[in-house]
Here is the input.
Amino acid sequence: MNLIREIYQSIVRRDPLSTDKGKSELVFLNVWLHIHPAKVKREHMKFTHTFYLGFITFFLFVILVTTGIALMCYYRPYPPAAYQDMKDLQFVVFMGPFLRAMHRWSAHAMVVCVFLHMCRVFYTGSYKKPRQFNWVVGVVLLLLTLGLSFTGYLLPWDQLAYWAITVGTNIGSYAPLVGGQLRELLLGGHTVGEAALLRFYVLHVAVLPVAVLLLTAVHLWRVRKDGGLSRPLWKLQTVKKEQLVTIGAPQETAPLLVQPAVATKTYGLMEVVTGKPIFETIAPEEEEDAVFSFPYAFVREALALMATVTAIMTISILFHAPLEELANPAKTPNPAKAPWYFLGLQELVSHSALLGGVVAPALMVLALLAIPYIDRNPSRQLTTRKWALGLFTAFVVVNLVLIVVGTFFRGPGWALVPPWVHVVGGAE
Amino acid sequence: MNRRNFLKWGWGSAGLVALVSAMGVSMAAVLRFLMPSVFYEPPQAFKIGTPGDFPFGPPTFLVDEKVFVFHDREKGFSVASAVCTHLGCTVNHFSSDQKFHCPCHGSVFAADGTVQHGPAPRALDWFEVTEARDGQLRVDKNKTVPPTYRLMV
Amino acid sequence: MERRLQQIFFALSFLSLALIVVAAWQANTPSWKTYQHRFYELEAQGEPNAITKAAMLATPPEIHQQMLTGLQRVDRCTTCHLGVEDPTMKDAPEPFRYHAGLGPHVPARFGCTICHGGQGLATDKASAHGSVDFWPNPLLSKEYIRASCGRCHKEGEVPGVPELTEGRHLFETQGCRGCHKLNGVGGSIGPDLTAEGANHRSPDWLERHFLAPNVVSTGSAMPNFHFSKDQARALTYYMLSLTSEDMGSYYSSVRLIPGPEYGRQLFVEKNCITCHNIGGVGAKTGPDLQGITRQHSPEWLDEQLVNPELVYPGSSMPAYDLESNERKALLAFLSSATPSDAEAIVSQRPTKLAPEDIAIEAGKQDFSRFGCVGCHGTELQGGVANPNAQGGEVPSLLHLSDDYTKDEVIAIIQNGRTPPLDNAKGPMPPLYMPAWKKVLSQEDINRVADYLWSKQQKKKEEAW
Here is the structure.
């Protein structure tokens, strides 16, 4: 018995979870959990503040990695074996259709959620000083997510995949000076072929996931160093300036509230951090608002994970991932459409290749990256941010409209056709 | 609330059971997923032709399937593996001594497949041969039979 | 709040358990397992031996597949069609019924889809029969299934499929090559038909097209040849057989090469005796062919048949468009041909040809084989509609000598010609004379000109 206890205690070295010290140690002695703070602020963890979109995006990524690795056991990244393997997954592999559906719908969901997360961060003004660079990291993560989705799109090697990537890479080739070279680098050739499939596969299963993991680590680390999740908007008014205490500020703004030690309270040294202190503004009542991450935050995270997983599973049981005919370079479907998140781009390109395909998206990305630096208003109050909110909302709406038009309102020849009109296909 | 109260609740324990079961079923499903349902290999059971295709006397060697087909005038058919049990080389059968000789390390197997000489650890396998409904002979490498097994047609 | 959250968490746990069980159950009960179970029950019904019966019923369900590397496909049809090679199942209900008449075409070597079409990789009925979106190759209906024989059996009579021979014959004699390329030879007015069988057109469409080209393919310049229904069907069979199946060595082995009898048939068909002799019997223009297979290597002889001028520059032997198995058959015949064979062939010919007639005869053959008859007619009468060309139709060639010298005609054949327009502002006529200098050798073109000149009707004489 003692041996069992000895073995257990050599693995689990913290105090029991019934103690405060134990609850804290669970977090900061554990390699997987110590990205969390030992304590979180209850108000900041409310669902209606963040909608847990960041968590959900990350959990979707985890689902994608696990289903992706499973699918890799049955997939050969060279044509035409790739297509045959898709058919095998569909007809022969146990739960093949289900896993494939999980992977595909999680991918679409991740693109949607990362976009919604970006909107949430913007609307709550959580990109403002000192969190500017984290916004930039986030935008890069958005681009990497799109890249992952785009590279994965080619892998089934069906008509949808082949032509979507042909259109997508052709849009990219319009970039001035480097466009052609970039396209050749990506495709490993002049057209989408064997080399392209292999490169896209390498990007999709190795390069981009590792990049996402590394940058996610940076992203979460910076959130921690910035003081955790931002204060919810509804709390912004209630903080009275006089009461604010800025720790480590060059001059003191208000005296620190000091309480003598009490025998009934357990004190522990949470962290010793060297270096320059970070500016953090807290209100006294927030001291009481702090709760231990275990179980408060973890229960919510677990719930978000369960909700995400069950939602994806439900969708995957109801809707199978599509698979069209084998890729045929000689036969272009009409219309040939890029993946849905690039349809807005394709719509722009149909009006002007250079302006629509290169200038507009480049400006959009640059504008996104520059937001925290252009926005000189330090306040997060919605009432003071009318311009910023208006511009951003316009940006979102325009993008959505372009995507909707590209998806539903464009028929053969890229002609404008309302979706309720039945388009008669060719005779053969 | 502490854990004891929580679990007393029925809710908690049922939920925990559900969660653990879901994880268990998922684990089992993943394992089953990883087991292949089809094999991109030559089939283990196959037809080799009609009895009339095989002459009496020296056995017929089938190259791709790596088996010897013996057709005895009195006793009928038997099928022996041509794969040496030592390290997998293909053995030869010589009519002069009715024995199987492996060219790689010199193992010699008697007419019934038992090891007479050399590094081979076990006797050669004999496979089940049956008559299919269309009159062809069907060999099943998944089913080994004793060396005395014969199919009379 | 915490309690509510935990309640939701465990509700979701139940839900996730239910979902994973549903997903696993769905994956574990595919329709093919049901079919297999029913088949084993059917099999067990007729089995008297109780032990064997029990073993049959206990057979674990599994997917049966044929890996056909030679045909570059994988077929799983026998997962459900379990009785295909079992004669006792000849009255069983589908999908268990016995497939009579397979002969050597067993599933282990040929699979099923090479003849029947469909989607071999699939394991449910609708997908496997190809009647789903995004699979362009559905099952061939009973009426057309025999056309698949032509995918491998590309030469000679195919037993049981006279439509293929008829279709081939029609193609060669009705002038299809004049507008359509086949295996690199032919005109460019219509689409290349070399792999028409792989275009996944429905057999029904093909047949209707042959009966009324302009109606089925609107705006087509293809004239209506007034084929009968049987002829249209024969041509459809031929079209369906034009696939470029890459066949592994097993399939293009000796089993497919027709023997010396077919070689003799070709020898007569191509009129070799017109120039050659066997042991002195026959014409003296070309060399004696007796024992020729012992004098030259098979590769040399094969090359001679493909490209006579390469071996003997200036040779007057035409290039015959023979497939590789046809050439092998001819050489098989020649390896055993004797002077008495040649005598028999000569005596069967209607008339003896004089040397000057040789070139004309060869020219006539070329005229038919390369499809000139398709536009200019088998009697050189012309008459095929050509909107907005002067005269509104393809001209007759019976009066060429009135307007052109022989050299001018040779130049037209070499370089082609667009017809003069009736209305200069109107659209280009769909039919034009193609340039043949890249397709036909100079010798061939000269022979065609000789043939045309032999057929000229002198207008001036008639006027008298």
